[in-house]
Structures are given as structure tokens and as C-alpha cells.
Specification:
The strands form 4 sheets. This protein has a 7-stranded antiparallel beta sheet with strand order 2-3-6-12-11-10-9. The protein has a two-stranded antiparallel ribbon with strand order 1-13. The chain contains 7 helices and 13 strands. The N and C termini lie far apart (about 60 Å). The protein is an alpha+beta fold.
């Protein structure tokens, strides 16, 4: 009896130590997001249109740079409200910076990290009337294209962290546009390089919010919350008639070198068919 009680106490102590350790938020994130992302993938535009789309995650590189796998989120309803168009559907594939095992949260929150505030992935957008979202007369519509990452940052990321609407900033300046690019085995992509100024994710946690389940609770020093930061953006966009869907691959990072590296090592190795 005493032996069993000792084992139970030891197991209980180990569980307590695990829960309060920086490792616990990472394990919790992996568990929650694998299930949640899987549920969203079942209802995604990929499933509805028979699109096979796979983007490598952080496990595909040798560095501790990105989260292990790319997640899926269906954002049709909030995006419809954001652009005031009930006839549009949006599926987002995304990934964010890797966790710090010392801090117990993603480096998304670390202003000193080169991966601060960074994301990569893909947007799939479909209109019920069959028109190509993000394109006008077959050409990339830069203003319309910018609506998706703006919505993503403001409504899906920073809003849950507590960024006031009055302080939201998203400035997008195109530095280079290249048409008819070959990418992932398809011709006809538009490639956009851009300079951005967007709110940073660094903030002080004043309570627990749902987003902390995936990113962890921020634990880095903060001098000023949501301070706008200069970023570099890279986008590949193309409309696919066979799926009635516009697809945009994207990288948002702190430096041009990092956007290029993510493209070469991860995005360009995606499967789309």
C-alpha cells in the first residue's frame, strides 16, 4: 500500500512539474493545434475542390526556426464581414516561429529574434459568382490582394492579443512585381515583393486568451506593446480556373534574406495539384 502511494505521489509530482515547466505550453500547443487544424482541413476549400496542397513545416529544416507543421483555418465568415462581401470563402494555411523551450512561447513574441512577427503559408480565396478574387482583367489587383494579409494580421492575430482598433497599422508598399513566373510546376504566377509596416505582436499578457493555446503566453520583455515594425513581404498569386480559386503563397518576415530563405527552403517545396 505504501509503495503504491509513493508511486502515485511521484507521478503526481512529475505531472505538476511538467505542467509548470516551459515545455508544457509547447506540448499543449501541438496537441490542440493538430486536432483543431485537422477539423478545419475537413471543411477547407482544398477538401471541397479536391486540391492537394501540402506546405512543409519547421521539421523540414535543420534549424529551430518554425513550428513543426503548417496549420489550416477556415476564415470565411469573419473575412466576409471584414470586406463586406457574403459571397467569398477563405481558407488559410499558416505557420509561425518556433517555440523557445526556455520561455515557453513562440518567438513570434520576441522582438530580438529575426523571426519576430513572422508568418508563412497560403491563402485560398473563392467567390461564389466565379470571378477571380485578387485579379482584375487577368492582372493581379494589389489593393485587393492586400486585404487578405491585412485581415489575417488584424482580425485573427492581433485582435485576440488585445490590440485596440484605433492603433491598428498595416501599410503595404510594392517594391517589385514580376508577372508570368513559373512556380510549383505552374506558369502564370505573379510574384510580389513588398515593404510593410505592421503592428508587432510583442505585448504583456493581462490574462489568458484563446490564441495562447497555440503560441504560448508571451514571456519576453516589452518596452511598448504592439509597436509597429518594418517587415518584408513576398507573395505568389495565381487564379486556377479548374478550382475557381485564387491561391496566394506568402512569407512575412523581418528581413528580405529571411523571406528568400523561407521561399527557397520551404514554400518552393510545397505540393500543389
Amino acid at each position: 500500500m505504501k509503495k503504491k502511494l509513493g508511486i502515485m505521489l511521484a507521478v503526481g509530482l512529475c505531472l505538476i512539474l511538467f505542467v509548470v515547466s516551459p515545455l508544457f505550453p509547447f506540448v499543449r500547443s501541438l496537441t490542440v493545434m493538430s486536432v483543431y487544424s485537422g477539423m478545419h482541413r475537413q471543411e477547407s476549400l482544398m477538401r471541397q475542390e479536391g486540391i492537394r496542397l501540402k506546405i512543409p513545416g519547421g521539421l523540414s529544416t535543420r534549424e529551430t526556426d518554425w513550428y513543426p507543421f503548417v496549420m489550416t483555418f477556415n476564415a470565411s465568415e469573419p473575412f466576409q464581414r471584414f470586406i463586406q462581401d457574403p459571397g467569398v470563402k477563405l481558407t488559410i494555411l499558416y505557420n509561425f516561429p518556433a517555440f523557445s523551450m526556455k520561455k515557453g512561447c513562440s518567438r513570434l513574441f520576441d522582438p530580438a529574434s529575426p523571426y519576430y512577427n513572422s508568418f508563412y503559408g497560403a491563402y485560398l480565396v473563392q467567390r461564389e459568382d466565379g470571378s477571380a478574387f485578387g485579379f482584375t482583367d487577368g492582372k493581379l489587383d494589389l489593393d485587393q490582394t492586400a486585404l487578405v494579409p491585412c485581415f489575417d494580421f488584424w482580425e485573427l492575430v492581433l485582435d485576440d492579443f488585445g490590440l485596440p482598433d484605433a492603433d491598428k497599422q498595416f501599410d503595404w508598399q510594392i517594391t517589385k512585381l514580376t508577372e508570368n513566373v513559373s512556380y510549383l510546376g505552374y506558369d502564370g504566377w505573379s510574384r510580389v515583393e513588398a515593404d510593410l509596416t505592421v503592428n508587432g505582436a510583442a505585448h504583456r499578457a493581462s490574462g489568458f486568451v484563446q490564441s495562447y493555446l497555440q503560441y504560448g503566453t508571451p514571456a519576453y520583455p516589452v518596452s511598448e506593446e504592439f509597436q509597429p515594425v518594418p517587415m518584408k513581404g513576398l507573395v505568389y498569386g495565381r487564379y486556377f480556373d479548374e478550382w475557381n480559386t485564387s491561391i496566394f503563397f506568402y512569407v512575412l518576415a523581418t528581413t528580405e534574406e529571411l523571406t528568400q530563405k523561407c521561399d527557397e527552403e520551404i514554400l518552393s517545396r510545397s505540393v500543389l495539384e
